[in-house]
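Task card 7
Instruction: Convert sequence to structure tokens.
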Amino acid sequence: MRLITIDDVRDAATRIRGSVVRTPLVPAPWGDTERPLWIKPENLQPVGAFKVRGAFNALGRLTADERGRGVVAYSSGNHAQAVAYAAAAMSVQSTIVMPEETPNVKVAATRGHGAEVVLCGAGERERVADEVLARTGGVLIPPFDHPDVIAGQGTAGLEIAEDLPDVANVLVPVSGGGLASGVGTAVKALCPNARVFGVEPELAADTAQSLREGRRVDWPIADRNRTIADGLRSQPSQLTFAHLQRVLDDLFTVTEDQIRSAVRELALRSHLVAEPSGAVALAAYRSAALPPGPTVLLVSGGNIEPALLADLLSA
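Output:
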């Protein structure tokens, strides 16, 4: 198994330049004085989430023959939109498998980018995707279990290191682990004194348990589906878990109430719309015992159902 390097991330940055937004580091003066806070707002990407980085890098690495066959992806939402968006930009046909419980706003957005959407039952994404691959002859672009996807996500970490070289703490949401793997690789290479912390919901804390035990543990999908953070219900692959073991200094878990409060705080204090999955880093910033020093939290996405956002803001 080959883990990605900073050179892979730099190559990805060159490949996707012009296709994704180089999101700024937004200062948050309402943060802790001992841990000055900056926000990396990946919700400002064209599809509302960081996933567009890995999608453009992975599709950009395909041969002309592979592009002609079309691409297939499976996702709870943000990777689906990213692959559909990148495929449309490259004139590539895309078919996306999405769980039936995916928020409607994400399904509609994926179809809006021209993708064929195939809905499936909980825990059946990979099996149905295999059926679609057999039917279409397409190329699979997985949501996190691929070095090109991980390297693409790592470009967010490259930007953090370039914009804040003295960063002390970086907080990153963890689900399948592609984002934290890539960001951690870049930050550790360029800012060796920085600490990288993963964050996941208590109701989907399979990665926290896996890191404690030194092996991947499996949580039933029914358990992981309890969290409001629908984008953080996946589990790391062998490849991403190996990266997480290498680059994470620790992993914090947050409660559902803390996640809800973080969505509200981002909206009211920073004027940023974040989905629950995208707000977990702020939840950890507020609740975890972080070391002092300049801190960056990554808002991974902002694709939230309007009714849910209204409910959270009115609480």
